[in-house]
Amino acid sequence: MLNGKVALVTGSTSGIGLAMGRALVRDPKLFLFDEPLSNLDAKLRVEMRSEIEKTRADLAQETGQEIGYHGANMMKEDEIVDAVEQTVKTFGSLDILVNNAGIQHVSKIEDFPTAKWDAIIAINLTSAFHSTKAALPHMRKSGWGRIINTASAHGLVGSPFKSAYVAAKHGIVGFTKVTALEAAGSGITCNAINPGWVRTELVERQIEAAATEKNC
Fold first, then answer.
1. pTM of the prediction?
2. b vs e for 161-186, b when ≥16 Cβ sit within 10 Å of the residue's Cβ?
3. Which sequence positions are flagged as catalytic?
4. Which residues contact 131 (CB under 8 A, 6 or more apart)?
5. Residues 102-131: pLDDT tens digits?
6. In 3-state terms, what secondary structure has residue 59?
């Protein structure tokens, strides 16, 4: 039933997002890469875009599928909307949306940088609203759609030193429920997944930071 469907996965060039992309594109699918690069400086953005292009090209060659990429800043509504519209323009539809983009920062509430809070809420939560809002009209038009939101175990329980992340993931769970209710009966479903620890680059950085702190 997924043959020929078009998928857009945010945060899909590493970790859970890349694994989702690999699984989807083999079905086969047309797949658009998207990555939150807003927290990197200009030099790192250029280097990462080069790595992303290599990943995209290698996966396209490996699977024989057409794979697009949009480097949207996940903190900016207009760029997120453009990623959705470019998907439809390039591939003719948008059938599957996976809201997976996310970043992390670990700190006590009283020491938590406001800029980090704003970025985590924007990328981990608000970006899902923008992409879903942009995607739903296309899905309603075709009468079929699947929206999958990557929440977290932290969408169900709390954890110290992760106030913004926990708040965002709880928000994703609530937003998923509302989307599912509003889309009910239209052929569109919306579900959240709540993974625990997955050894991705994001988690590796947390492990290294924790180890460094304990050794001090």
1. 0.84
2. ebbbbbbbbbbbbebbeebeeebeee
3. 165
4. 8, 10, 80, 83, 84, 97, 99
5. 999 999 999 999 999 999 999 999 999 999
6. helix
